[in-house]
Amino acid sequence: METNNRNIREEINQKLDDDILRGALGRFAEAYPISRAKAYENVDNIEELRDWVQQMKSAAVEKIEEIADQFVTEATRRGAKVFRAGNGEEVKEYLLRLCQEKGVKRIVKSKSMASEEIHLNAALEAAGLHVKETDLGEWIISLAGQKPSHMVMPAIHLNRDQVAHYFSKELGQTIEPDIPFMVQVARQNLRQEFLQADMGISGANFGIAENGAIGLVTNEGNARLATTLPPIHVAIIGYEKLIPTIKDAVPILRSLPRSATAQLMTSYMTMICGPTPAMVKKDGKWVEEQKELHIILLDNGRLKAAKDEKFKQIYQCVRCASCLNVCPVYTLVGGHVYGHIYAGGIGAILTAFLHSMGDFEKINELCIGCRKCTTVCPGRIDIPGLIEELRAHSVKEKGLPFAVQAMFDHVIANRKVFHTLLRLASIGQKPFQSGDFIRHLPLFFAGLTKDRSLPAVTANPLRDQIKRITKTNSRPVKRIAFFSGCSTDFVFPETGVAVYKVLQDMNMEVIFPEDQSCCGKPMLGIGEREASKKVAKQNIKAFEAANADVILSACPTCAETWQTTFVEILHDEPEWKQRAENLAGKVREFTSFVAEEYEKAGRLTSTANNGIKVTYHDSCHMRRSLNIFEEPRQLLKALPGYNFVEMKDCDKCCGMAGAFGVKYAALSRPILKQKITNISDTGAEVVAVACPACMMQLRGGLDQQLPQVKVKHVAQILAEQLDK
């Protein structure tokens, strides 16, 4: 797909309106987690297997040049001809020259994302060569004139009727949409292609340095035909596929099929170690001749990534695409909206290195940072973290639009200005405000309130209530400094009031440092680091002066920012980094802290399951960054008068994801709608949350779609119990 002058929003809307695509991806997304879990049932310890992949691959990248040299030596010793290509153009030149020298006219290809990456087919066809994809999915999309929408299942977005249409058009006859019949038709038509081919081109799942072998993990058998029947075999392999020894293939073979297609193993596992004899037709007779094996090692930005301390992580990718399979955005719109070849979060990163930063900048916001991908990636790649790092590189190099940068520098980074504007917003919103919500907006803003209401900015922020709600404890057991965050302070002050009540009930002194401001996550999320540093330092100063035992937040995003991000962004300023580290050790998230204190006091005993039904939605940051998920449930199950029920996909993103929920409302709404369906199915009267951003999204959606269900922060539910 041409990526210049793209209208991403229009493409997204087209995919959202594609019922066939939505249906296919939706069914797959529903089935995949169950199938994957079943495939891993006979693995004693999944996390140890993931550690094995990560450690093996990360060790390999540290000496990738040495491994590559050994691979070339061993492959050459066994009769292969190895060519190191710096970029896609060098690959094309090599192949076109080879085809001319050997008189190649017809080429069959098995699946190769590297060849897709460099648009190889177009170059070969432009030179007059007959090129045929033989992987069934690749053949289908080639007939459709499309690119793969998935790294493993390239035609996942199509249904049988569409495939039958493409087959009928290609073969000049009516092909019925019967899957077994269509497979047989494909087999019959492709068989002659294998027999007539002068060259077979394949990719490789790995290349082994110790013996120069390449490994192919496939299901259809076409790869074996493409690599054995033609007299010339060309394998295109990226440097990231190289591994030191044959033993190192074991964790890949154990995790790749399970993670990619939820299989214990694939139908075929092929090792090719040097050329072998092949049958060639000459003068009407079949004769045996030695094959030629050419291996092209493709760089195309890979070696640059290998030398980067952060981005060398991409070498841990085994191309299973499990990250796509659980991505809330991918499973809504598919892979083509990502523009280049590689889709999803990992695709955005690969696009930056293997294609261009310009193309990355067009699609990077499609990663909502839910971190679901990090829970299934066999190589433990921090995909959201790398995307944020690339955003920071982009901002550092090109800057932000003037208005955005000005807002960060002069508004968010200036506490007094920021808070003054929020107070003015509470006045300016009144023509559109209805109670705690803004349910309708005029003109082109109307889409923001479709299927969900927006929260109103409070006229009575938490900071204005501190004097009223603060109790004096003569002998407090702990001194707690409360970091409210913007949402609790100016949108949901009732949550902050509840936090005070719960903590003071445990005889703790609670203070509110007045100079605290935004944690900076809105700026960090789009890559702005300098203004974020300024905000971090303001908050560090404010909380150092508090001299507290614990810094507590009822927002997991704020807690994570305090615990890790402040330290990371201040790494180049040793004094400030140390100050950030000193406070990071004191930071606690509300529910985990209270659960710990309640347990000490014997207040965490589960009660009978009767009373008001309550379910719980896990915040992405809380579940997958802070690794907190049991504690809020323990608190809810200990409440008398409540009956806790678990919802389906309790830890799936609600679709808010900060600015994403507003900027990409068309994507946010269907994610929210599925969450509300899951809430409705529980029959719960109350949805408990521990994240103000999730509360914002769920309250707005339920207000319009399921108004009888209420959303409350866990702190509010606990505080209500104290009044009984």
Helix fraction, binned, reads: 40-55%
Q: Beta-sheet strand percentage?
A: 5-15%
Residue runs with pLDDT of under 50 for 5 or more positions: none
Counting helices, strands and paired strands, the structural category is: alpha/beta
> How many strands, which pairing sense, and closed or not: the largest β-sheet?
6 strands, parallel
Shape: elongated
Mean pLDDT score: 93
Number of helices: 34
Calculate Rg over CA atoms: 29 Å
| Lateral strand order in the biggest sheet | 1-12-7-4-2-3
User: What is the total tally of β strands?
Assistant: 23
Distance between the termini: 62 Å
**Which oligomeric state applies?**
single chain
What does this entry look like structurally?
With 724 residues, the chain is α/β, with parallel strands linked by helices. 49% of the residues lie in helices and 14% in strands. It is built from 34 helices and 23 strands. A six-stranded parallel sheet has the order 1-12-7-4-2-3, with helices on both faces. The protein has a four-stranded mixed sheet with strand order 8-5-6-9, with helices on both faces. It is elongated, with a radius of gyration of 29 Å.
Brief characterization of the structure:
The chain has 34 helices and 23 strands. It is of the alpha/beta class and 724 residues long.
